Q: What sequence folds into this?
């Protein structure tokens, strides 16, 4: 495990909002962060006001808030435009009786209308529920039903996936599209927007009032509704400052869809709380189109995911040279372990360190990060951000010393901590079963310098002949092999060893599966990491099962292996 340590990339932090790297944050206080918000003086709280209207009131109405590109649209909106449009839609919502506390869902591909809708829902004090556009019938129904949603904003194309007859509480459908047939409960989005006034009162709320409900899958059971409140804006703002390093004039691009928490906390809230230009790109991943997005929009801060960076790595260096990426200042990653190989490759090819960040839907915002002012140890998630206290604890709540693997836990509370699992108090309490701590469900260890190293989900850790093996470490090693594009590693039950390590591998362009290659890859891990970490079995696959946020679904691999049902697949890529 320790072979990754000691390797540090520490250059390249010329400027950072956190100042020079500091070891302690004795002076940190959330109250200082509160002072950044207008409600600190006025007492009037609403995240949408802080994200949009406040900038207009401060004379920045003409600055560009949103640059939207997809294969069919290329549009720019100022903060003034977003203020007017979100006011218009707020008025449309109110005309149908939508008010504070109602759950209103959005179900559409990335588009300016999606961002306007989310802002408007928040403006009227309702709780927004984002659904990923690729959800099919059951996934949509489960979430609308569980949350008791009263309204849904969707497109004519996605409408067939909404089983209205089975959802008695769903009274209003706001439809984005052409030729909408008038019908009870159906509102033509474009038509009503044209008629609506661009002026609207904001619903002032309390900091503890509902903001957003994100459904996320656990290892078992149906997806859970993770409920966040307006107070989360403290975390969004603060991490936007010290982790994303956002500054006046930045052009920021977060590649996540708002159906996932990264696409809202960091695809909407953090950048707009800072008043920077937010780039949104619709459509599918392709290395050329994505580099083109950076070049065309002059992106300076880029937040993406390991799966994308691995695909860029697979696409090679030559394509990078065809684009001007010189505007980039800061690159970040989230969602799954960022392999050291990818950090090294990014540093070589982009000239920037890719900064890993760790957090979860439940945490609402970034907690453990490589912030720009600190030296990076490739493979580590970094250190807790100021204001956050993280530790490795055992199942009884005892804090473990450095290098001992255990539960990654966070001292409660922090501003963006989830406040509820909708309709499921027992599930919520499970996370807080050890008094004073939030138990993440991830395992990790901390090194002597206070850096955290991700090991796996509790249920993914492999025990082979009494040796604990974190699948991430094996996967990281595997993708360093020139033939390996992606790898997923599971523990396969074995009568003598408890479990053996089995790797599912997709190969890079130009490599063909063979027994020789299997042996060579296994030897590569044995020689590069350790004998007990080397896969005893390898299976080549054209593609690996992934969630739409890019995580390799080890539990699906495990189900394939054991011939078991794969469980809830509502978040699988396709
Ligand atoms: C933001 C987000 C959360 C789970 C989390 C962990 C994994 C996220 C990671 C990471 C290793 C990182 N995860 N960031 N693992 N290194 N930097 O991804 O939320 O979709 O709820 O997933 O993702 O296992 O517990 P979410």
A:
């Amino acid at each position: 495990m320790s072979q990754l340590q000691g390797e540090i990339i520490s250059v390249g932090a010329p400027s950072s909002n956190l100042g020079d790297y500091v070891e302690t944050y004795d002076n940190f206080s959330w109250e200082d962060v509160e002072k950044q918000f207008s409600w600190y003086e006025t007492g009037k709280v609403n995240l949408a006001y802080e994200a949009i209207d406040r900038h207009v009131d401060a004379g920045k109405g003409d600055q560009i808030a949103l640059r939207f590109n997809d294969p069919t649209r290329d549009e720019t909106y100022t903060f003034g435009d977003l203020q007017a449009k979100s006011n218009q839609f707020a008025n449309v919502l109110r005309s149908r009786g939508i008010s504070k506390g109602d759950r209103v869902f959005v179900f559409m591909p990335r588009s300016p209308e999606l961002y306007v809708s989310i802002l408007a829902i928040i403006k009227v004090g309702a709780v927004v529920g984002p659904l990923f556009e690729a959800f099919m019938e059951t996934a949509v129904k489960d979430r609308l039903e569980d949350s008791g949603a009263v309204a849904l904003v969707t497109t004519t194309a996605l409408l067939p996936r909404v089983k209205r007859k089975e959802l008695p509480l769903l009274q209003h459908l706001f439809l984005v599209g052409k030729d909408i047939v008038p019908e009870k409960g159906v509102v033509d989005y474009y038509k009503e927007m044209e008629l609506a006034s661009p002026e609207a009162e904001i619903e002032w709320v309390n900091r503890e009032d509902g903001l957003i409900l994100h459904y996320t899958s656990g290892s078992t059971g149906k997806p859970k509704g993770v409920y966040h409140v307006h107070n989360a804006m403290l975390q969004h703002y603060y991490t936007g400052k010290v982790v994303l390093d956002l500054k006046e004039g930045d052009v920021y691009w977060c590649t996540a869809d708002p159906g996932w928490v990264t696409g809202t906390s960091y695809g909407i809230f953090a950048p707009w709380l800072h008043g920077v230009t937010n780039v949104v790109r619709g459509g599918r991943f392709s290395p050329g189109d994505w580099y083109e997005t950076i070049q065309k929009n002059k992106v300076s801060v880029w937040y993406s995911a390991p799966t994308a960076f691995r695909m860029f790595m697979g696409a090679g260096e030559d394509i990078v040279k065809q684009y001007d990426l010189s505007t980039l200042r800061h690159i970040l990653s989230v969602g799954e372990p960022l392999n050291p190989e990818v950090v090294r490759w990014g540093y070589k090819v982009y000239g920037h360190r890719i900064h890993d960040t760790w957090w979860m839907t439940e945490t609402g915002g970034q907690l453990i990060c490589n912030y720009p002012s600190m030296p990076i140890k490739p493979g580590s998630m970094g250190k807790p951000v100021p204001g956050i206290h993280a530790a490795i604890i055992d199942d009884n709540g005892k804090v473990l010393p450095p290098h001992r693997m255990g539960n990654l836990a966070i001292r409660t509370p922090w501003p963006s901590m989830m406040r509820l699992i909708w309709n499921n108090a027992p599930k919520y309490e499970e996370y807080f079963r050890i008094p004073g701590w939030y138990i993440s469900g991830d395992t990790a260890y901390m090194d002597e310098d206070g850096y955290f190293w991700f090991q796996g989900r509790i249920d993914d850790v492999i025990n082979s002949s009494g040796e604990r093996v974190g699948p991430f470490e094996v996967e990281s090693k595997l993708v360093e092999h020139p033939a390996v594009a992606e790898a997923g590693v599971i523990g396969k039950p074995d009568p003598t060893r408890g479990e053996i390590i089995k790797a599912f591998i997709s190969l890079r362009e130009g490599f063909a599966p063979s027994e020789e290659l299997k042996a060579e890859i296994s030897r590569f891990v044995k020689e590069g990491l350790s004998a007990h970490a080397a896969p005893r079995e390898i299976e080549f696959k054209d593609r690996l099962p992934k969630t739409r946020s890019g995580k390799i679904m080890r539990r699906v691999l495990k189900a394939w292996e054991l011939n078991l049902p794969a469980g809830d697949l509502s978040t699988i890529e396709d």
